[in-house]
Amino acid sequence: MKTVSTSKSHGGVQGVYSHASEVCACDMTFAVFVPPQAKDGPVPVLWYLSGLTCTHANVMDKGEYRRLAAELGLMVVCPDTSPRGDGVADEKDNWQFGQGAGFYVDATQEPYAKNYRMYSYVTEELPALISANFPADMSRQGIFGHSMGGHGALTVALKNPGRFKSCSAFAPIVQPSTAGWSKPALEKYLGPDSADWRAYDATLLIDDGNRFPEFLVDQGTADGFLNEGLRPWLLEEACEKAGIALSLRMQDDYDHSYNFISTFMDDHLRWHAQRLAG
Amino acid sequence: MKTVSTSKSHGGVQGVYSHASEVCACDMTFAVFVPPQAKDGPVPVLWYLSGLTCTHANVMDKGEYRRLAAELGLMVVCPDTSPRGDGVADEKDNWQFGQGAGFYVDATQEPYAKNYRMYSYVTEELPALISANFPADMSRQGIFGHSMGGHGALTVALKNPGRFKSCSAFAPIVQPSTAGWSKPALEKYLGPDSADWRAYDATLLIDDGNRFPEFLVDQGTADGFLNEGLRPWLLEEACEKAGIALSLRMQDDYDHSYNFISTFMDDHLRWHAQRLAG
């Protein structure tokens, strides 16, 4: 692991790191905020998964999580959204597929299977790296994310309920199998059989019996992707049927940007901190 | 004035606007955050002047001012740092001069005098535009900034003590006339006679009799520009001699980045809000 940069912030340290990822077969970059409480021992870890077109840097620059994470004593880890580099298959003119659009799946189709293994990356390789190199209490992990990363957070939590104590999302893609901006990606990464997509679809995972105790979801009503791409009511229906507690908050006039995310960041950090305490 | 974008944030509206500037003889872009209190009447205006290489966007993205500005009821206006465009004289390989480096002066030398009139722009043309188009209480204005913009805030306040009720700075260039990264710019904008630079140098303005009631200045001790470019002790000496109250806070291990600025943003907003109240 290489340190790209570190900078003191709110009494803690915001760092950027890179490493040669075996899982993704390329160099990967990620950001970690270590709160001041870490000098006294391991702290809980909160994973933030970003949306389409993002890298680790978007939420680091615009997410406004450091002030309260420093107060609450939360480490915040921000992975990239896909494998990167000239050797990684891509569709340069398509922002909904390829680099910047890994969808947190393990691709099975060529030429993507070699690098596009973001599910294993964020659930196995990167956690091992964090555990080995940072003062992280891996028995207390939460996960959240935005849009494609909200999809990532919900699916990762539903598939690993024993590992995560908390999960929330900002404007998540709740049913990627049937949304226009995600279905083609699932098809290219996972093949034409839609049965293979269910393992990466929050609502269908719930239909198939996966469970997580409770979710917090914020969704802006002025979000241009609400009706076609996001459709939180599908998650509401699935959770209601399954008896999963969902706090879905429709936020008047908020859009899909980091102005929306940063507005409700404090609420999400407190939600996680309460569930990661002790 | 054209609206480039608006986005709800923390109950207020973060907007970006552009206009054909007469003073700078080019199109200029700026950002304004209007807090929710503005629906009940005009609110105080806080001007943030940015540093070298920045546009209006850096502090808008990374400054983390909206949460508390929304709570305190402050409008925050963020101008660009220079004139812009293909028709504007520039030194493309020099980040300390030309576009992105207007130094908040009115240039007198060719070919800069036509466009590089950032002093008049931020003290006359843009305030008139803000007053005409936003719910701004122009009787309650404060000003702050970072680095080159800290220099801008201090000099603008010292030259307009009746207009501003508060002034603060993050890591300001306190004596640009003698610092390596600013002296060549003053020479090119204002000519070879260093007497002409004094009107744009905070410490020399104080030596020449300009006054402002009090300043808050934060400065990181790990700031790579501290000893050569910033030198806050020169401001401390000038203020002490002049009887100006200066709260200079050296912040251990903080650098020159927005991680430093955002950490102390709340303190500065509260400083201004107290002085702009009522």
TrEMBL record, chains A, B:
GO terms for molecular function: carboxylic ester hydrolase activity; S-formylglutathione hydrolase activity. One of its GO terms (cellular component) is cytosol. One of its GO terms (biological process) is formaldehyde catabolic process. InterPro entries: AB_hydrolase_fold (IPR029058), Esterase-like (IPR000801), S-formylglutathione_hydrol (IPR014186). It catalyses: S-formylglutathione + H2O = formate + glutathione + H(+). Signal peptide: none annotated. Keywords: Hydrolase, Serine esterase. It is an enzyme of class 3 (hydrolase). It comes from the Bacteria. The active site is at 147 (charge relay system), 223 (charge relay system), 256 (charge relay system). It holds the Pfam family Esterase. Its EC number is 3.1.2.12. Belongs to the esterase D family. Serine hydrolase involved in the detoxification of formaldehyde. This is S-formylglutathione hydrolase. The lineage of its organism: Bacteria, Pseudomonadati, Pseudomonadota, Alphaproteobacteria, Hyphomicrobiales.
